[in-house]
Amino acid sequence: MVKKTSKTIFSCQACGYQTPKWMGKCPDCGEWQSFVEEIRSGKPGQRGRRVLSASQPKPVPIDAVELEPEDRLLTGIREFDRVLGGGLVSGTLVLIGGDPGIGKSTLMIQVLHGIAENGRKVLYVSGEESVRQMRMRSQRLSALSSDLLVVSENDMESILQMAESVKPDVMVIDSIQTMYSPELTSAPGSVTQVRESAMQLMLMAKKTGTPIFLVGHVTKDGAIAGPRLLEHMVDTVLYFEGDRNHVFRILRAVKNRFGSTNEIGVFEMNENGLNEVANPSISFRTP
Fold first, then answer.
1. Is residue 30 situated within a structural domain?
2. How far is CA 59 from CA 32, 63, 64, 92, 220, in A?
3. Are residues 20 and 122 in the same domain?
4. How far is the C-alpha of 31 from the C-alpha of 226, rounded, in Å?
5. Are residues 12 and 120 in the same domain?
């Protein structure tokens, strides 16, 4: 007789709460109709105790940790750099959310182009657009560069192998809700897939020192789709806001481990992309 090595669980897509039975209302966050069936594979209780390796990090006294001068990577977009706290910190994980069509992908293309113009190699991974579509967008924005690499991929294993081979200085994942790990049976966008994908990217960022941007969709309530755990895992959370019927966009930080959350960046959207608004008070002034 073959023993069953997988079991069915139900996960809340709002907070990540798990239960063996379906429930109409999540007892943790109070969300209605948020449970989705997922299949967890593997035999429980067989992981055992790990053997510590010689390369495993060991705790050290905090006053013995050596500090190096903080060298931030500038994107060339002053409004963006100021919201980040003065540029990108090595190994940082940045989550940027906003309504569909607000200009998140446009902003990311222009940010990567600014970094590539300084001789850095950057990688843009899209799970929603083909490389041809990305080329058309970049050409419209005058953001073509041989150091700006693009790829259309959803498989996290392939993306991590690609990043290890290319060794980019900065990477963008657009969007985190379209990524999936083949080891999990749940669909892309589910709480399990989003959490696992973000965890793998976080480990890569901290291990290699590569800054990574995660583009995230926003729900009708104005929050980034997926579990709240996603916002806790990243170093910085940015919201790109504005009315699609108006030209102005505002970038603000709601969480920043390496800078202030009191700064905002103002941009103007036109046919050539996003332009910085250096003096918003003049632009917003009524005649």
1. yes
2. 43, 12, 11, 22, 44
3. no
4. 13
5. no
Instruction: Report the amino acid identity of residue 251.
Output: L
Instruction: Return d(Cα 180, Cα 189) in angstroms, integer.
Output: 8
Q: pTM to 2 decimals?
A: 0.83
Contact 191, 226 (CB under 8 A): yes
Identify the pLDDT of residue 5: 60
166 and 271 in a single domain? The answer is: yes
SS (HEC) of 140-200? HCCCCCCCEEEEECCEHHHHHHHHHHHCCCEEEEECHHHCECCCCCCCCCCHHHHHHHHHH
Please, what are the averages of pLDDT over each run of 10 residues along the chain (287 residues)?
Answer: 64 81 88 80 46 67 84 92 94 91 94 95 96 95 95 96 96 94 83 89 94 84 60 92 86 93 92 86 59
d(CA 179, CA 172): 12
Helix ranges (DSSP H) in the chain: 78-84, 104-116, 131-140, 156-166, 191-208, 229-233, 280-284
CB 80 within 8 A of CB 113: no
35 and 134 assigned to the same domain: no
Q: Looking at the structure, do residues 149 and 266 belong to the same domain, yes or no?
A: yes
Domain of 216: which CATH number?
Answer: 3.40.50.300
| 62: in domain | no
Whether residues 27 and 121 share a domain: the answer is no
Interval 192-230: pLDDT, tens: 888 889 999 999 999 999 999 999 877 656 555 555 678
Q: Both tokens of residue 46?
A: 């067989």
**Structural domain harbouring 33:** 6-41
Number of domains observed in the structure of the chain: 2
Contact (Cβ atoms closer than 8 angstroms) between residue 206 and residue 151: no
